[in-house]
Automatic annotation (TrEMBL):
InterPro entries: HMP/HMP-P_kinase_dom, PM/HMP-P_kinase-1, Ribokinase-like. One of its GO terms (cellular component) is cytosol. Pathway: Cofactor biosynthesis; thiamine diphosphate biosynthesis; 4-amino-2-methyl-5-diphosphomethylpyrimidine from 5-amino-1-(5-phospho-D-ribosyl)imidazole: step 3/3; Cofactor biosynthesis; thiamine diphosphate biosynthesis; 4-amino-2-methyl-5-diphosphomethylpyrimidine from 5-amino-1-(5-phospho-D-ribosyl)imidazole: step 2/3. The lineage of its organism: Bacteria, Bacillati, Bacillota, Clostridia, Eubacteriales. Keywords: ATP-binding, Kinase, Nucleotide-binding, Thiamine biosynthesis, Transferase. CDD domains: HMPP_kinase. One of its GO terms (biological process) is thiamine biosynthetic process. The keyword ATP-binding applies. This is Hydroxymethylpyrimidine/phosphomethylpyrimidine kinase. Residues 13-255 form the Pyridoxamine kinase/Phosphomethylpyrimidine kinase domain.
Amino acid sequence: MTIAPVLTIAGSDSSGGAGVQADLKTMTMLGCFGMSAITALTAQNTLGVQGICPVPAEFLKQQIAAVCEDIPPAAVKVGMVYDTPQILAIAEAVAQYQLPHVVVDPVMVATSGDPLLKQQAQQALTEQLFPLAELLTPNLPEAEQLTGTSITSPPQMEQAARQLSETYHTAVLLKGGHSMGSCNDLLYAAGTATWFSGQRTDAPNTHGTGCTLSSAIASFLAQGASLEESVRRGKAYISGAIAAGLSLGHGHGPIAHNYAILKKDHIT
Ligand SMILES: Nc1ncnc2c1ncn2[C@@H]1O[C@H](COP(=O)(O)OP(=O)(O)O)[C@@H](O)[C@H]1O
Ligand SMILES: Cc1ncc(COP(=O)(O)OP(=O)(O)O)c(N)n1
């Protein structure tokens, strides 16, 4: 029996909705073998982030080496990274192990408003990590911060995705979850813009949607799908997991990663 191994390099979310926990659930549900190198422990729930305990860069490197020297991943998702030494360690590992299909979710601030990346590390993230990615998956606030522009319309989304793609020589999926209307995402790859439309589910429970989408795309890439097909299937998975209507916690609750095997009546 063979199964595509996928590595997530990301932070731990104690409440299980985002970060490494969301990534491993996603990879498992999509038929991959999930592996992890943890950048930070967060004390977090649906109301916000109460604490962050970063992992030393040397130990992060040791985790990545332990995985790559034994079970080489077929794709890698990079999520929350905390500081510049961690970013340099990841960039070094990507080069050293020639890691394939690197999907970088530029997590800067949680939806709760809590910062997850040290402010001084943004330059290292864009200069060291972005150019190594096959795909970047910013949300609208992240794309606004990265381009220094305001993005409030589909043409502005196209302009921003193109700017990021040309600056960092990589494909960009600009996610529309933070827009007011439909949840349409834009893939800009090799000079071509492709829209992936999505109906908005009118519910506050979207904790971990970005983590889930990026690890779903990495999972499909690991299984040999093209970038466009991976985004299409990732979008279908995230839409179903949100629409399932899981309701947990007192704030922005998590989504149902295992919706495909749950009976609707059992989702509370
Ligand atoms: N309420 C919603 N209904 C349907 N899809 C959503 C909703 N919120 C976000 N999405 C989708 O979830 C994915 C993650 O997007 P987004 O929430 O913008 O990212 P992030 O979690 O990084 O802030 C995108 O495909 C987006 O369109
Ligand atoms: C440990 C950890 N990593 C990433 C996030 C951000 O998750 P994301 O899916 O981008 O969005 P929200 O959950 O903030 O809506 C996180 N919260 N924790």
